[in-house]
Amino acid sequence: MYRQMSLRELLRMMDARAQDVSSAVHEMLPVFRRALARLADETADAQLKQMIRTLETYAGVKGGKWTREAEEKIARAGRRLLRPASTRIAALPRS
Question: What is the chain's Cα-based Rg?
Fold first, then answer.
């Protein structure tokens, strides 16, 4: 049902975990995104499909074609979510 992780992806995650948790999350998010997309296609789950569309809009994906830049954008966003809440709130734009 799910594609197994490539050896390269697994090694990258293992190396990242040795550094810090946010690096591991950074490496895992694109793998998780692809697994969610496959699950949405296989199950025709409307909520999952909407989640994928939201990620695509955020990352600037055109026509469902993910680029390295788009993958990096969601990976960096995931890292930012791990920051302490006070840091994230301070970084919000002021109106």
Answer: 15
